[in-house]
Amino acid sequence: MKTLSFAAALLLAGDVSAHYIFQQLTAGGTKNPVFKYIRQNSNYNSPVTDLTSNDLRCNVGASGASTETVAVRAGDSLTFTLDTPVYHQGPVSVYMSRAPGAASDYDGSGGWFKIKDWGPTFSAGGATWDLSGSYTVALPTCIPDGEYLVRIQSLGIHNPWPAGTPQFYISCAQVKVSGGSGSASPPTVSIPGAFKATDPGYTANIYNNFNSYTVPGPSVWSCGSGDGGSSNPNPGTPAAPTTTLVTSTRAATSTAAPSPTSPSSCSTAKWGQCGGVGFSGCTSCASGSTCSKINDYYSQCT
């Protein structure tokens, strides 16, 4: 009984842990049931942190076998809604990958192109992130008809590398696109492979002299930009009107965060990670918060 109780408690902790997951898709103006058109992952709302893992494509255990594919038209808007709003500071990006056949059979091993970034805006010595409960993106009008995976990613950089580990929160929707011009051939990247531990947007320390930022991964591609794509290293486009906007600003000179060079003498800001299996960052919390164990793999300053 003791073992069963512990397992049940751990399962509950995973369900209510202080993370988030993109779980609901709105297409054609219809907000669909949770995981109807979005692949359901098996790690609850925990992040992926291994840059070499295939789980970076659509998340842990997220296969298409039990996921339906929604019919959309090129140019339509899709809205991804989370179980709880994003609150880890960092960029949100949307990628697409065309399946060679049915999206439900596709493992995402082909090429991916990026169609949207939400990055920080800088003013008055601080950065503001678009931390929302939902994110809306328009599908390109010039892509070929076919079935696609549409991948949304929130990269939490609240635990600066190398003392901490950035966290990827990922979901993939399955869509069947019609009405496209069929002429576009966007440049693609492989996932894993598109993100490296040396990328400035991965190693950025949001608590120390943070006054510019380049979102990791390829440039944003759009129909008007040709095969070379277009990029804005500091995109500040606000969320679509359907999103619930919650912003967070950190002063560039803030010292309440972990120091990547001396974790033993640093402290973690509230809501940051402070422990867990494999964690090597700061284990003490800033004044006013305490380190609370969520599960064996994640403790958080609350």
Automatic annotation (TrEMBL):
UniProt keyword annotations, A-Z: Carbohydrate metabolism, Cellulose degradation, Copper, Disulfide bond, Hydrolase, Metal-binding, Monooxygenase, Oxidoreductase, Polysaccharide degradation, Secreted, Signal
Catalyses which reaction(s): [(1->4)-beta-D-glucosyl]n+m + reduced acceptor + O2 = 4-dehydro-beta-D-glucosyl-[(1->4)-beta-D-glucosyl]n-1 + [(1->4)-beta-D-glucosyl]m + acceptor + H2O
Primary location: secreted
GO biological process, one term: cellulose catabolic process
EC number: 1.14.99.56
Classification via Pfam families: AA9, CBM_1
Family from the record: Belongs to the polysaccharide monooxygenase AA9 family.
Protein name per the record: lytic cellulose monooxygenase (C4-dehydrogenating)
Organism, scientific name: Echria macrotheca
Phylogenetic classification of the source organism: Eukaryota, Fungi, Dikarya, Ascomycota, Pezizomycotina
